[in-house]
Amino acid sequence: MASSSREQDGQPMRIYRLFNKLKRPRSYAGRVLLICFFGTHIPLITFVIWALVKNPAFGQENWADLLVLLLATLAGTAITFLLVHGMLAPVRVVSQALGDYRQNKHLPALPRGLTDEAGYMLDQVQETLEELDLTLNNLARAAETDPLTEIGNRRWLVSHAEEQIARAQRTQTPLCAILFDLDRFKAINDRYGHAKGDAVLVGVTRFVKGELRSSHLFARTGGEEFCIILPRTSLDEAFVLAEKMQKGLSGQSIARLDPGVVTASFGVVEREPDEKDRSSLLRRADDLLYQAKNDGRNQVATSTLV
Questions:
Q1: Where are the beta strands (DSSP E) in 175-297?
Q2: 274: enclosing H helix or E strand
Q3: Other CB atoms within 10 A of residue 193 CB
Q4: Which residues pair with 176 in a beta bridge?
Q5: pTM of structure
Q6: 148 DSSP 8-state letter
Q7: Phi, psi of 12 (to 5 degrees)
Q8: Helix (H, G, I), strand (E, B) or coil at 64
Q9: What residue intervals traverse the membrane (predicted)?
Q10: What is the pLDDT, as a whole number, of residue 246?
């Protein structure tokens, strides 16, 4: 593969590869400036050699002329170095932008609208990074989003729940979790079809979202199981919310099914002072969820009487 790539490079990369073997200078700009140095001094060296060969006494007779020529050459070299260094700015800017994006995912704002090859490179790199950034963001969002209900999935919940639990631990504020599961959902699928079952899931999601605040975390964690994380919420408040959602679901038509066909069972818990991760919190909520199902479904179970 490497040899094939070099063959495709052809003549345009041959000179670059030759200079790339130099141990000093190591930078791209330094090697370009080295070329400029030789380029600006070749006329002077050639002239001096020619003059000395033609007239060995040239140096003694025309030392003032040689001095002026040398100073002019050095001045021209300095100006050339300065201008070439400035002309190489697009290469440095692009290199820095690519490295910064790779390390920090920071999208650059490269100069646009320049008309030469360097300007074209700047435009192409900017557009490529913008497209790449959009694609990566879409992929990350898709990886953490349930495609049917368009809310967070289990993976999304895991990362965000840990953040909220750590914050609650740090600020010593209450945090609650609600797990709920649709009752007899398999029977709905069997009787009405999976398309209707999907519509039920979407309808339930839409209803529940309407009852939540923007600070609440809401995710679909299983086929018909959902989880809500409630920061800065006491157990009493969480129980009232869960009971409101339980009664609201059973009392209305979801996906054009008769009221009472779609119901859900809820488990509600509050984070304990020594609870530092989501695992034990959600495990307790899951136990209460199954308690609600075993007690007859379509109800709310909590660890403490409210």
A1: 175-182, 217-220, 225-231, 264-270
A2: none
A3: 11
A4: 230, 270
A5: 0.69
A6: T
A7: -55, -30
A8: helix
A9: 28-51, 63-84
A10: 98
**In whole angstroms, how large is the CA radius of gyration of the chain?**
36
Residue 164 near residue 281, CB atoms below 8 Å? no
pLDDT tens for each residue of 154-205? 999 998 999 999 999 999 999 999 999 999 999 999 999 999 999 999 999 9
Q: Which residue has the tokens 């869960």?
A: 242
Q: What span, in angstroms and rounded, lies between the C-alpha atoms of 140 and 12?
A: 39
Q: How much helix, strand and coil, in percent to the nearest 5, is found in the chain?
A: 65, 10, 25
- What is the Cα–Cα distance from 234 to 261, expressed in whole angstroms? 31
**CA atoms lying within 13 Å on the CB side of residue 171:** 11
From the list 117, 224, 243, 270, the catalytic residue is 224
Is 272 catalytic? The answer is no
- Picking from 156, 100, 155, 163, the residue whose alpha carbon sits closest to that of residue 133 is 100
- The CATH fold of domain 154-302: Alpha-Beta Plaits (3.30.70)
**Amino acid in position 23:** K
Residue 167 host element (H or E): helix 154-171
Closest CA to 273 of 160, 169, 167, 178: 169
Strand pairing report for 264-270 and 217-220: unpaired
Cα separation, 17 vs 23, in Å, equals 12
